[in-house]
TrEMBL record:
Belongs to the ATPase g subunit family. It comes from Brassica carinata. The keyword Protease does not apply. The lineage of its organism: Eukaryota, Viridiplantae, Streptophyta, Embryophyta, Tracheophyta. GO terms for biological process: proton motive force-driven ATP synthesis. This is Mitochondrial ATP synthase subunit G protein.
């Protein structure tokens, strides 16, 4: 167990050194590549304006999302009505999707508990 701990520590140290050496250049390269998205000057007014744009853009997309939701639900109802025509591949994909949803739920629960498996903190 102690040898594994030393091995993990050495890997973490290597990763830290790599980030320290290459992180700044990657950051600069990323900013240079995406500089057309940066708002200059970054004032409070500009940040509030962008925040409002994001909010109202999201609100404007609600009708389309609502329509898409009902289309997806109708498709699922139609699949359920014609389940005798359902292929094994489709059932397998649906099962994998359900399993993935459950895994994300479990990951969220573990994160919400403070990365513990046994229960919530008092």
């Amino acid at each position: 167990m102690a040898s594994k701990l030393i091995q993990v520590q050495s890997k973490a140290c290597e990763a830290s050194k790599f980030v320290a050496k290459h992180g700044t250049s990657y950051y600069r390269q990323l900013l240079e590549k995406n500089k057309h998205f940066i708002q200059e000057p970054a004032t409070v007014d500009k940040c509030q304006e962008l925040s409002k744009q994001l909010l109202y853009t999201r609100l404007a997309s609600i009708p389309k999302r609502y329509e898409t939701f009902w289309k997806e639900l109708d498709y699922a109802k139609n699949l359920w009505k014609n389940r005798s025509d359902l292929k094994v591949e489709d059932a397998g994909i649906a099962a994998l999707f359900g399993l993935e949803c459950f895994a994300w739920y479990c990951a969220g629960e573990i994160t919400g508990r403070g990365f513990t498996f046994t229960g919530y903190y008092p």
